[in-house]
Write a structure and sequence with these properties.
The structure holds two protein chains of two kinds. By secondary structure, chain A is mainly alpha-helical. Chain A has 14 helices and two strands. Chain B contains 16 helices and two strands. In chain B, strands 1-2 form a two-stranded antiparallel sheet. By secondary structure, chain B is mainly α. The chains are: A mainly alpha, B mainly alpha. At the A-B interface, α1, α2, α6, α7 and α12 of A face α6, α7, α8, α14 and α15 of B.
Chain lengths: 347, 398
């Protein structure tokens, strides 16, 4: 088990490294660097001026060296001229001797966002907390709803209830967030239908989340993920209900309710657990759409802003965080599967 | 003129779709008569869910074909604005209508005074052009890589699986943003990606024929030449565009040019879908390669590619067909996502994602420009999902 964990962690680190390298390479193409130079310096710089600006600010080094600097594995660049000492890790007006040699992700320095003029580390932390709040409520709403629908549908396979609930779950998986969000806002928050029950934006929910301003975005994400989990639960429940020990329990004359609650349920919930954890990458996707749609300034919203403005440090930070979240949930789902299902043993 | 009532709007929309109704009636009638001879498709007619799915899917396919090829159904030009029709409610009479103009905006006007109904219909043509083809390419790429990964195992499997997981761990929207930004398009990366991704179907078809006709050299070379020469030409004209990073063919030989934006959209959608198909194929191959008929073929001395493509693949077709239906729906969702973030497709394109994005700005006052494409997308994806569900149920019955 420990070996398995170590190997998985090793693969995880390798994946995170590869992905951050890819994002780094794509955001640091020559054309992007020229844009950065013109943004930081002067929009009407000539090519030679751009060249010298990049030279002065450490962008002229090979891409892999700069990736190492960003990671904190290589010492940051330094430069001394008549006006003072400069460097990646040297604060404005500081000296090279007083500054640390390395400053990167490993040292906790995530760089500065070019669009928001803030340190990326704390910025991402606040956004992550906001998205976490949303995800928590999504889970609270989605998981029980999906499990109940799945268990009710799988309990009597082929019944009218099963048909209805299965079609409902197919309907929710067929509705992407930008469709359900638009329909929900139009029906429950617009003046056109007259039902102004909820608010169409969740900006105020960032400080003060209430049912009125937070329910629609949470429901929008939950609906899309719910159908899939419900169908998995249904399949797993239907399989359990045909197994020998359930038949034995029925032949013993136990109540149907008792069989479902005491005998079938626990075994039927193993498969949905892994599915719920594996839903996280999809939920992250939905978060980006819903945060944009409802103007909720979390991690997904920041991702769109960063990607749209080529905000390199912020984009790298966000992709690193989201990749780690995805990989961690995959790991948890694997471990949880082993614990829940004693028939599977990983050496 | 008076604005139309809701009943009159519904009646006129139904009438507008007349060619689609006729085509649907013909299809269903013929399929019903010959359903006993049509295999899995014929069995679908015993399954109510699958039938509803087929109906919805075919409805949009025929709508797209009628609108895209014959210019029927749509009442106005999807890109032309008519002054005075901005954000008008459904059923508003067209201002300044001349003879020959359709006298109403059936589903109202959008924020730029264009007809919502016509844009919705025109949007279906974009989806039907891109989604099935992109899914097909994703399948060919996924199958070509997934079969050897599952069959040979070992280091090849580890490397390919790692690469697939790498792509799957990437947030899809970030990947889209990275692939479609102008700087990256200018660097030629999507062009190189497309060169690689579009090569895989050729490799797939080549291997398929080669494995089958290997024992008969004359037939083998003839078939390969007949198949691969035109396809190779099409491939080269597809990936090479004048003035872009890949400028391979002289202009005289270049058969067609796909607009750059569409090609990038195509590539990103294939790129996102292929790893999942790869994992599915790999899993199926791992299961099927232990079967007796594979052992029999190995004993006969068949080559590995013959076994993979002519023994394992046909037996894996059930799950692959079901996943194909589901995946077209997912591709449609992805296309909508791209449009929703304004990536790749031109900003006035009538595709559903872009239209939803344009309509959401005034959603709380004028919801109709966003709701029409939203419902259209929902019904198409729902149809594909129901169809996949019906196919799965029927294929499990044997």
């Amino acid at each position: 088990m420990i070996l398995f964990l170590l190997r998985r962690l090793g693969v995880m680190l390798l994946t995170a490294l590869c992905l951050s390298l890819i994002v780094f390479a794509l955001t640091n193409l020559p054309a992007n660097l020229e844009k950065i130079a013109k943004f930081e310096g002067n929009a009407r710089m000539s090519d030679a001026q751009v060249e010298s600006w990049l030279e002065k600010n450490g962008y002229a080094q090979p891409m892999l060296v700069r990736y190492g600097e960003w990671l904190g594995a290589l010492p940051g660049w330094t430069r001394t001229d008549e006006s003072g000492e400069y460097g990646r890790c040297v604060p404005v007006g500081g000296t090279i001797a007083e500054s640390p040699a390395r400053c990167g992700i490993l040292q906790g320095e995530w760089g500065e966002s070019r669009v928001f003029r803030e340190d990326v580390g704390p910025f991402i932390a606040t956004r992550l907390a906001l998205t976490g709040k949303m995800m928590f409520w999504v889970m609270v709403l989605m998981v029980p709803m999906a499990l109940v629908i799945g268990v009710l549908a799988g309990m009597r396979e082929g019944s009218k209830l099963d048909r209805g609930l299965s079609t409902l779950s197919i309907l929710t998986t067929a509705t992407p967030e930008y469709v359900s969000g638009v329909i929900l806002i139009a029906v429950f928050a617009s003046s056109a239908f007259g039902l102004k029950w909820f608010k169409g934006t969740a900006t105020s929910a960032m400080e003060n989340a209430t049912f009125e301003n937070f329910f629609l975005p949470v429901l929008t994400i939950a609906l899309f993920g719910m159908g899939y989990i419900a169908r998995m639960t249904r399949a797993s429940m239907a399989e359990v209900m045909t197994s020998q020990y359930i038949r034995t329990a029925r032949l013993k004359g136990l109540h149907f309710r008792e069989i479902v609650l005491k005998h079938a349920l626990r075994n039927a919930l193993i498969a949905p657990f892994t599915v719920i954890m594996l839903q996280f990458p999809w939920l992250l996707n939905g978060v980006v759409i819903v945060e944009t749609l409802f103007n909720y300034k979390g991690l997904g919203w920041a991702l769109v802003q960063a990607a749209g403005n080529n905000d390199v440090d912020l984009l790298l930070g966000i992709s690193l965080v989201s990749v780690v979240v995805v990989l961690l949930t995959q790991l948890i789902s694997d471990i949880g599967y082993v614990y829940l299902n004693p028939r599977i043993r990983i050496a | 003129m008076e604005p139309l009532s809701w009943g009159a709007i519904a009646a006129r929309i139904l009438l507008q779709f007349l060619p689609v109704w006729i085509a649907l009636a013909a299809t269903f009638g013929l399929s019903w008569v010959y359903r006993a001879k049509l295999g899995l498709y014929g069995k679908l007619f015993d399954n109510r869910i699958g039938l509803i799915g087929l109906f919805l899917t075919l409805f949009w396919v025929y709508t797209a074909l009628a609108a895209g090829l014959f210019d029927w159904i749509a009442t106005h030009d999807p890109l032309t604005a008519v002054s005075g029709m901005k954000n008008k409610v459904p059923g508003t009479p067209l201002r300044g209508a001349e003879d020959g103009d359709f006298p109403y905006y059936l589903l109202g006007g959008d924020g730029l005074a264009r007809d919502v109904f016509s844009r919705m219909v025109a949007g279906s043509w974009i989806v039907v052009q891109i989604a099935p083809l992109a899914t097909l390419f994703a399948f060919m790429a996924g199958i070509t890589l997934g079969l050897p990964a599952g069959y040979f195992g070992g280091r090849l499997d580890s490397v390919l699986t790692f690469a697939a997981n790498l792509i799957l761990a990437f947030p899809v929207i970030l990947l889209f943003y990275l692939l479609v930004t102008p700087e990256i398009v200018a660097s030629g990366l999507p062009a190189y990606l497309s060169a690689g991704l579009f090569l895989l179907p050729l490799v797939f078809l080549g291997l398929l024929i080669n494995a089958r006709a290997r024992t008969n050299p004359r037939r083998r070379w003839m078939l390969l030449a007949v198949m691969l020469l035109p396809l190779g030409w099409a491939y080269l004209s597809l990936i090479s565009a004048q003035g872009s990073a890949l400028d391979l063919l002289p202009a005289a030989l270049d058969l067609f040019d796909v607009p750059g934006g569409i090609l990038v959209v195509f590539v990103s959608v294939i790129f996102v879908n292929a790893p999942t198909v790869f994992r599915l194929t790999r899993g199926l191959t791992l299961d099927l390669k232990t079967r007796d008929y594979v052992a029999a073929a190995q004993t006969r001395g068949e080559g590995p590619w013959y076994i993979m493509l002519w023994e394992i693949l046909p037996n894996a077709r059930g799950p692959l067909i079901v996943d194909f239906c589901l995946r077209i729906g997912y591709t449609t969702i992805l296309l909508g996502t791209l449009g929703f973030f304004g990536l790749g497709l031109p900003p006035d394109s009538p595709d559903w994602g872009t239209t939803i994005n344009a309509g959401r700005k005034l959603l709380s006052i004028f919801p109709h420009p966003a709701i029409a494409p939203a419902v259209a997308l929902l019904s198409l994806v729902l149809g594909l999902n129901l169809l996949a569900d019906g196919l799965r149920e029927e294929s499990l019955k044997d």
